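Worked example 2:
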Amino acid sequence: MINSVSADFDHEIPNGSRLYFGTSAKLKRELENKASKILENHGFSEILTPYFSYHQHLSVAGAKLLKFSDPSNHEIALRADSTVDVVRIVRRRLKDESLKRLFYIQPTFKYPSEEFYQIGAELIDESNLALAIKIAIQIFREFSLEPVLQLSNIEIPKRICEILNLPISVFEKGEIETILAQNCDWLAKTARATNLDDVENLRKIVPEEIRPCLDEILNLGVEYKNIRVSLLYYSKMRYYKALFFRFLDENSVLCNGGNYEIDGLKSSGFALLVDALIEKLMIKD
């Protein structure tokens, strides 16, 4: 006898999960194959990490994790992010000093039932965000895409909080009205900055503590026409501490990455958001 509840959901797909077929499956395979070749040509090796992890709280807020207990009653979670696990597995378990550049093609999961595919790359113990951005641009151009490159520096919101005695939650939640209510000319101009010329002009008026953060953006040295800045953007990924970037197409994030520090290693990395890219390519074609 078939349970009536099970029958109701026969062949149904849970909200947030992914199904690829026909054109979307073909695009997914093509995207993964081309990205793999480009990353291998830049000296990256592939790694696939376990679906389950003890360390996901180091990457994302616990409220976003799908958590349960292992046989020893230790809390584990479905992988919601790959970066921390990749760095720790390589440095602590594999203990291979030659594995510095790694990439992965695998899904991540977030509460309550969301599934995301990523093509990610980590430059472990190599703070080289310009190269990370260059590789992402190369992959986009394989598909004739030129999305907006948005540059940020996570240190800027943190230093503003110290100067003006504001909680970081103001930036986490994007409470622009609270920011503008400070009646601070340099802060208002920082909020309105959109390009590198604006960043150059801001250097003359912002407090001294913020100037090095602006210089990091100006000295990144990325050759790309479609560059914007978002100087008050604050990433919710816990390991990003400084330079951060996103590739945007209208309201979709196609890629993000930045400089980070895990276990004392200053590194760079990025992730292409496969599902958003497939949607973009299907509309484009």
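The longest strand covers residues 252-262. Confidence is low (pLDDT under 50) at residues 1-6.
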